[in-house]
Design a protein that fits this description.
The complex is a heterodimer.
Chain A (H helix, E strand, L loop, with lengths): L3 E10 L7 E8 L4 E5 L6 H8 L7 E9 L2 E2 L5 H7 E4 L12 H11 L4 H15 L14 H13 L5 E5 L7 H18 L2 E5 L6 H4 L2 E6 L2 E6 L1 H10 L3 H4 L4 H9 L12 H10 L1 H16 L5
Parallel strand pairs in A: 3-8, 3-9, 6-7, 7-8
Antiparallel strand pairs in A: 1-2, 1-4, 4-5, 9-10
Chain B lengths: L9 H17 L3 H19 L2 H24 L6 E5 L2 E4 H27 L2 H8 L4 H30 L9 H32 L17 H22 L18 H14 L1 H13 L1
Antiparallel strand pairs in B: 1-2
Classes of the chains: A alpha/beta, B mainly alpha.
């Protein structure tokens, strides 16, 4: 059974004429790493927010969203807060308390967990994140990357089964963004948390994601595994979406005479393996080797 | 575990601030006030070597000077006339009253500086969330906004300066206009971000039920001991004050500044009450060095 089932969902913001989401259907399996992408204003954030009941945008909704086979509105508030976690775009605005420690336990305190339970969970996850040294600092003194990690940590302490992230790395530097994505990958692989990620910086995400959903004007246009999406975007010569594809796969799709779906490279490793199969590359590579060998070591 | 004064139960700390705050306005004998002032300065130094105190020194100094200088010129009650200023009498009583008032207010301010350092965040919530849960949290958020706005204003100023818009040059009208624009940017920006913060709180389950606290505060024997001692000292001070000790008569005619034996007794009680954090920290220092 799908974890999230969206059937014919349409959504219209209160003061607009057009539908932001138009008759959208989507199934998400438990344990999947889902990547939601598309140009600005295509409705991906709206879709993500509709999945979190507490912060769902106000407007006219038709169609159903089912979580584990039951409508979102039929679930108990408390269970939904625990099971569906949300990390926002801006690292700073979602932080509420002054101290890192207070911020981390904020969620658990709100849900009235017992002392023992809180301590157990904290001891486990703080260590996992390597945040022990930061517990006594002020939240305002953290870097953007640390702040976003803190937000992720405080959401994870509720042991969510579904994690929604709205462009979490858009305000981080590339190094911190990479760390954050790696952490998400670990969460997905080691704890089996289902992740739905809205993101613009897609280079490394295609290789991690199990399921990619591309949206345009409130509708899904491509959906499937990373390779499916890349293949169909290039098949239809879609200029907009071809540019979203990681540069490695773009190179393959543009240069390979007869690209095959299963051979689309997503990582540098796969790309190098493909390059080695090219006749021109092997020749040039050999030339380059001999040239470097002739160069004196010291001059 | 935190050591020294910070290690005590929040209730004990809160009572300490209530008692000292009350006494700051209760006694008005200059000797009492000066001593209390010095003790609170030492208390602040014992918290963080006076770092927080340092930021307040200029404001404190200016405020005290204004009160001391203005009071005798605005109030002409009293019998001992020092001199006439534009046909109005400047009296000794009003001067003394200005001094005691300035001391009291300075004392309260310093008590608050210390309060802020000790009863921050969780402890504050712990005390007030029992009977004023919503208000306590609102106050917490409001307090958080002060440094936040300050930081944002600095950011705005820095960005606008690069664009050539600055508050430090040009005519006064131009500067005032720029200032207004900055405030407008600051407020719209902050309001927008406050919505995001509210969303975050909602999505993390704030307000769906009773809150628990992560740090367990337990009243120990030591806490009870100090609680009773402080209360006893406070009661002695109050009842002594009711009999007129520790106070001076200012209006209509300045009374004697003479200190009687019962005054000395109250004086010592007050010193003990005020120096509770210093005693605690001192004992800790002696024990661990």
């Amino acid at each position: 059974m799908a974890m999230i089932q969206i059937n014919n969902l349409s959504f219209q913001y209160a003061d607009t004429e057009e539908n932001t989401l138009e008759n959208l259907s989507l199934h998400i399996k438990e344990g999947d790493f889902v990547l939601l992408c598309g140009p600005s204003g295509c409705g991906k954030t709206t879709l993500l927010r509709l999945l979190k009941k507490e912060i769902a945008p106000v407007g006219h909704v038709t169609g159903d969203i089912l979580y584990r086979g039951k409508l979102l509105n039929e679930w108990d508030d408390r269970i939904l807060i625990e099971e569906i976690g949300f990390v926002f775009q801006d690292p700073e605005n979602q932080i509420i308390m002054d101290d890192v420690m207070q911020e981390i336990v904020f969620n658990m305190e709100n849900l009235h967990y017992s002392q023992l339970e809180m301590r157990k969970r904290l001891a486990e996850l703080v260590h996992f994140f390597g945040m022990e040294s930061l517990l006594q600092t002020k939240t305002s003194e953290l870097s953007g990357g640390q702040k976003q990690m803190l937000n992720l940590l405080s959401v994870l302490l509720l042991k969510p089964t579904l994690l929604l992230l709205d462009e979490p790395t858009s305000q981080l530097d590339p190094v911190a963004a990479k760390d954050f994505i790696l952490m998400l990958e670990r969460m997905n692989k080691e704890m089996g948390i289902t992740i739905i990620l809205v993101e613009h910086r897609l280079e490394e995400l295609f290789s991690i994601a199990d399921h990619v959903v591309c949206m345009e004007q409130g509708n899904i246009i491509y959906e499937g595994t990373s390779k499916d999406v890349i293949y169909s975007a290039f098949q239809q010569q879609d200029e907009v979406f071809s540019s979203y594809v990681p540069s490695i796969s773009q190179l393959y799709m543009k240069k390979e005479r007869n690209p095959k779906l299963l051979e689309i490279p997503l990582t540098v490793k796969e790309c190098k393996a493909w390059l080695r199969t090219l006749p021109t590359f092997t020749k040039r590579h050999a030339d380059a080797k001999t040239v470097t060998d002739k160069r004196p070591i010291l001059n | 575990m935190e050591s020294g004064f910070r290690g005590y139960h929040p209730y004990v700390q809160f009572l300490y601030y209530i008692y000292t705050g009350a006494l700051a306005f209760y006694f008005n004998h200059p000797l009492f006030l000066c001593t209390a002032f010095l003790l609170i300065v030492f208390v602040n130094i014992s918290h963080d070597r006076g770092l927080a105190l340092k930021q307040w020194i200029p404001a404190l100094f200016i405020m005290a000077t204004i009160i001391i200088v203005l009071n005798p010129f605005l109030v002409s009650r009293g019998t001992n006339i020092l001199f006439y200023f534009r046909g109005k009498q400047v009296t000794l009583e009003a001067t003394i009253y200005g001094v005691t008032m300035a001391l009291s207010i300075a004392l309260i301010l310093l008590i608050f500086v210390s309060f802020n350092l000790i009863l921050n965040g969780n402890r504050f919530l712990y005390i007030f969330s029992k009977f004023l849960p919503r208000t306590a949290f609102l106050i917490m958020l409001a307090i958080r906004f002060v440094p936040l706005l300050k930081r944002r204003l600095q950011e705005i100023t820095a960005v606008q300066r690069i664009r050539g818009i600055s508050m430090v040059e040009g005519s006064i009208i131009k500067r005032a206009k720029t200032g207004m624009v900055f405030t407008q940017i600051l407020l719209t920006w902050s309001l927008e971000e406050a919505i995001q913060t509210a969303d975050s709180m909602k999505s993390r389950g704030y307000g769906i039920g009773r809150k628990s606290t992560y740090i367990p505060f337990q009243i120990t024997k030591r806490d009870w001991g100090w609680l009773l001692t402080l209360s006893l000292l406070f009661i002695i001070c109050i009842s002594g004050g009711l009999l007129g000790y520790g106070k001076i008569l200012i209006y209509p005619k300045l009374g004697t500044l003479h200190i009687y034996s019962l005054d000395w007794f109250l004086y010592i009680c007050m010193i003990m009450l005020y120096s509770f954090p210093i005693l605690v920290e001192g004992r800790e220092q002696l024990r661990w060095r």
